[in-house]
Amino acid sequence: MISISVNSAYWLLISFILGVFSGKAFTLLAYGKSSVYLKSRLSGVQNRINQFTGLLLITVAVFQLIKIILS
């Protein structure tokens, strides 16, 4: 059990902030490393995903245009 006093509150706050900072730094570092890895692995798939997304947006736009015309 941790005893809390006026002086220990500052140390608890500092240790909490350091813990949050180190966790955030580790998470961002892991995210950056994994994005570089995934980018190299999925470079060929990216073009197909962009084409699919474009086709999907055009299809939604056509449906919206038809809906506007018919109403």
Main features:
71 residues; single chain
Word description of this protein:
The chain has 71 residues and is an all-alpha fold. The chain has one domain (6-70). It has two helices and no strands. It is elongated. The protein starts with 5 loop residues before the first helix and ends with a helix.
Low-confidence runs: none
Tell the overall outline: elongated
**Spatial extent as radius of gyration:** 25 Å
Order of helices and strands: HH
Strand composition percent? under 5%
H/I helix tally: 2
| Portion of residues within helices | over 70%
**Number of E strands:** 0
Largest sheet: none
Distance between the termini: 68 Å
Total domains: 1
Classify the secondary structure makeup into a structural class: mainly alpha
Give the integer mean of the pLDDT values: 87
Tell me briefly what this model is.
With about 70 residues, this protein is an all-alpha fold.
Question: How would the blueprint of this fold be written?
Answer:
Blueprint: H1 6-41, H2 43-70
